[in-house]
Amino acid sequence: MGLRDNLKNIIDDQQRAADEAAERAKREAAIARAKSLDTAIKSFCRLLDEGTVQEIIEHHIKSIRGMRVVVLGCSRDRAVIYLDPESNVPRQFPLDIEFNADPFVMNEAIESVEVQAAIEALKKEGVIVTAGREQGNGAIRVTLDYRNI
């Protein structure tokens, strides 16, 4: 009977340790997701700042061939933006900006109050912003339509 109790206690201890590890992993994942969402929101707001949009549009208008804009990632409160003025993308209206980041976090960020407020502010300036997930590849695409400026 003592051996059976010892085995039961060992199994219970292992199960308890596994449950605690799973809970700890869930908490850490939730914290990481919250930080990632906060970073994405700040990055969107920084990207959708009127001055930044104006600068991107000016680069695009000056480019002969058109320009591909890719947001490579988000770190802290910054969006890492890659401007490719020599791309073969035809000069177009509106201008598309691609986000290479976690699409689920980005979708949540797009729907946030802060990002929607930035989109509304640009709309008042004549820049129509649409943002969402691409059907084909799942990438996040932000479109700046500035024909009304």
| Strand tally | 5
User: How does the major sheet shape up?
Assistant: 5 strands, mixed
Give the averaged pLDDT, no decimals. 76
The main sheet orders its strands as: 2-1-3-5-4
The rounded distance between the terminal residues' Cα atoms is 84 Å
Given as residue ranges, the uncertain stretches (5+ residues, pLDDT < 50) are none
The gyration radius over C-alpha positions equals: 23 Å
Query: What share of residues is helical?
Result: 40-55%
**What overall form do the CA principal axes indicate?**
elongated
Number of helices: 4
Structural class: alpha+beta
Q: How do the helices and strands follow one another from N- to C-terminus?
A: HHEEEHHEE
Number of domain modules: 1
How much of the polypeptide forms β-strand, as a percent range? 15-25%
Task: Give an overview of the whole structure.
There is one protein chain. The chain has 149 residues and is an alpha+beta fold. It contains four helices and five strands; from the N terminus they run ααβββααββ. Strands 2-1-3-5-4 form a five-stranded mixed beta sheet. The protein starts with a helix and ends with a strand.
